[in-house]
Amino acid sequence: MVTSGAYPLRRTPTQDRASRQVERILDAACAEVVERGYDAASTSGIAKRAEIAVGSVYRYFPDKRSLIQAIERRNQARYTEAVSERLADVSSWRAAVDVTLDTFREMHRTDPGFRAVVLSGLGDPELESKPGEFDDQHAGEFAELLAARFGARDSRDFRLAVTLSIAMGESLAHLADRLSADEAEYVLDQGRPVLYNLLAPHLPA
């Protein structure tokens, strides 16, 4: 197994056409899992959706679990890119917290890749190559943004506070998304100040 970009692959694509085929396989896997569920999804069904031979799927992915791992890594890359673009014009660190949380919620609602991972039933920890891989990456990026853009004082405690805020923000988003609109608004209104209070001691007043 090798890694090409964000994805663990059996074989690295050497041409643009092959890279596009890998993306098409991942898109087809998302659609198959969302429509049929993880257990019922099949490699042959994924190949049919991607309009390729089933052997072409196995050329890059040995099984469904490796496909979900690749989808999760693609999700992370897409999320990081979307957050970075939206943070470009943000003028306060509290607004940066809001953008990060809102983007997470939006992508889980609208991107089939995020839904496919949830429906796989594997859970993020089982898709990680090391514990906390995805949260740690995002926490590191967010800590650097807060330090560079908003004058956060970098320290071990600051990094821990950022990591905690990321983990709590994700839990808050998941809770809000399974509630009614009114309940979700209440949960988010109560939860956002908790995230702010975690970070406030490390940023200028």
TrEMBL record:
Residues 19-79 form the HTH tetR-type domain. Keywords: DNA-binding. This is TetR/AcrR family transcriptional regulator. InterPro entries: DNA-bd_HTH_TetR-type_CS (IPR023772), Homeodomain-like_sf (IPR009057), HTH-type_TetR-like_transc_reg (IPR050109), HTH_TetR (IPR001647), TetR_C_22 (IPR041674). It comes from the Bacteria. One of its GO terms (molecular function) is transcription cis-regulatory region binding. The keyword DNA-binding applies. Residues 42-61 bind DNA. The keyword Phosphoprotein does not apply.
